[in-house]
Amino acid sequence: MTRPNTARLAPGWALCVLLLACVVAALGLLHARGPSPLRADAPPDAFSAMRAMAHLEKIAQVPHPVGSAANADVRGYLLAQLRALGLEPEVQSAVGVTRTAAGGNTGKVHNVLVRVPGRAPGKAVMLSAHYDSVPSGPGAADDGASVAAILETLRALRHGPQLEHDVIVLFSDGEEATLLGAEAFVAGHPWAADVGLALNFEYRGNSGPMMMFETSIGNGGLIPGFAQAAAHPVGSSLLYEVYKLLPNDTDMSPFKRAGIPGMNFAAIESPYSYHAEIDRPELLDQRSLQHEGELMLSLVRHFSRQDLSSLAAPDHVYFDVPGALLHYPASWAFPLALGAAALLACLLWQGRRRAQLRVARAMLAIPVFLLMLVVLAGAAQLLWRAITLAHPQYMQFIGPYNSHWYLLAFTALVAAGYSALQAALARWFSALELAAGAMLCWQALLLASALAMPGVSFVFMWPLALMLAAQALMLAPRAQPMSGQWRAVWLLVAAAPAILLFAPLLRSLYVGLGPKSVMAPAALLVLLLGLLSPLLELLTRRWLLPLLPLGAGALALVAGSATAGFSADQPRPSELSYVFDGAAGSAHWVSGNPEPDRWSESYIDAGKGRHAMPLLFGERPGAWWSAGAPAAQIAAPRIDVASDSSDGKQRTLQLRVTSVRQAARLTVAVEGATVLSSTLQGRALADVPRQGWTVNGYALDGDPLDITLHLPAGQPVRIRAIDRSYGLADLGVPARPAGLMGYPFGASDTVQAVSVAELAAPGLNSGKSHERFSQR
């Protein structure tokens, strides 16, 4: 075999090429930044983030969960602002019910709706966002910013010509309480049948571009409009494929189940603010708000001119590049993949014919490359595990405050590891052979994704095709031998689109999944590096590769460790709740912190360590810090059995469970028996047999949960009821000191009261209500 021209670049050239590659990656990251916010004196028909901020400062002053007095205040503000625009809003008060795999949820919600008439009858465009927040934070980003953006969009629309179609606005209530408002809208409001397109807006952080991460099925009529209308489109079909694998829902889920076409948008950067006390207006990135508002305004104006009754069309593959959204029918994915396969076969044939590549070695490189991928991705995951052992407080975050340092560290260290392994394998594999092995893996992933998940296929299609084309041209019979400098330039040009595509993709995956799933972006990075093996070989020098990225990664780890502390601006999550045992009349302070903080230690007995509390939390008790607490005068939930009968095969149990103290949330769980089917508030839930059946009621105002359970005959059953009110101030608990905040998830800062009923199996054909049972 004739060894390919692999003369390494001179130090100056190598450094220039490496810097240019970094510049391309930076362009890929920077193009997704939102536009600069417009001032309050912007033209009246334009969207101004500064004008929207005036609304946000009113909406997100304090937490305003469903059913709270603060929630009613926000609703009143929305109604007043809509009337000030000359519109006629209405409130839909309803009981929403959602079904889950584990049971269901219900609650009283109050949706705010308004309709802006268009010139012609027909379907309407709907803008939607939820105005409730979680109890743990004021909800400036999630989702007050979207509510404020809709108000500002409506104001801008009122200063322009009348639109062709109606615009419906839904400010839903109870989204944080399992989408109750959106479910109530599609189930009971007449306007739901008029919606031709739903545009839903969310936040999972407080910064970053507003990405389109989900569409309805059959998006071929939506994506071209998004690409045409949006001045700064950000989104990809990959994000939707990943999102479908996650256990997440937004208000778009009920819309899609109702058959409404739609697109879902969210900003996800800085996820440490998600559901937290620090989700405050002054911390929101106004570039995100400006991007969101410009998207709203442009999409409404565009789709109001379209035929909304015929948006459904075969799905498209789509992805953003600087300044544009590229898209094509998903049906093209497999033919394109076959074209790439033909190009790869041509490269292998040319390489063998010109004695530049040994096909057998290229095939052997496949398992070698896969082993490199597994080792490096696994090492990244183990490194994060080691980091969390050194800084256990990171386990309380989706992504810590200084997460950017760790992203830099993982990227640099994986690059260093790959280049080191490639250099070590150089005596057995040329860079082209190793790249060919990687390309064969890419081709397999391309064919599999084109068949099973076409929305993912672009990730493998275009970087692979461009690199194949570049390598094939360099091996063409008429091609002149290139110097090392020109080979590097040619390979960098071919690699630039892949780097441009992968840089924001890696960041989005890292931010979206969190460092706890760093193996996924690390594996994707290894795939990219495998494709770039010939370019990396030209750059490999003792001080440049792998030592330079190794040093950069080590410095980033040091910077991450040095910035791991907390401050008043970046507080540490601190969990504490009060749990009252209704049977024993005793109470406990409970905390789920990974380790006690100085404030919660004054309430819990840290010396005894964390332990399970099945008496309070049932079959899945977890591990908690706890200590005895003064028993407050709290009424535990009441469990009443309306009827309990059996026909010998199936037991039918009708319950009425009430929060006597009218707590904000009431949870009922079934333990020790399988629920075959059930109803909640008279509405059927899933009829798949289920253990661990649970339902929740929100903002019930003292009304009971009416539950019917169908269970196997002859089984005793335990019913556990827990009600939850928000805030510990009534128990005399002082506010946390600066540098601490309530834990944004779970049951932190709540008062919980627990009741348990042990119900023996009734006799056969017993139709009488059971008046006697053990409730504790």
Automatic annotation (TrEMBL):
Transmembrane segments: 332-350, 362-384, 404-421, 428-452, 458-476, 488-506, 518-536, 543-566
Signal peptide extent: none
Cross-referenced SUPFAM superfamilies: Zn-dependent exopeptidases (SSF53187)
InterPro entries according to UniProt: M28_fam (IPR045175), Peptidase_M28 (IPR007484)
One Gene Ontology MF term: metalloexopeptidase activity
Xref: PROSITE patterns: PROKAR_LIPOPROTEIN
Peptidase M28 domain sequence ranges: 111-299
Key word Iron-sulfur present: no
Key word Hydrolase present: yes
Coiled-coil ranges (or none): none
UniProt KW keywords: Hydrolase, Membrane, Transmembrane, Transmembrane helix
Biological process annotations from GO: proteolysis
Entry superkingdom: Bacteria
PANTHER family referenced in this protein's UniProt entry, alphabetically: METALLOPEPTIDASE M28 FAMILY MEMBER, PEPTIDASE M28 DOMAIN-CONTAINING PROTEIN
Protein name per its UniProtKB record: M20/M25/M40 family metallo-hydrolase
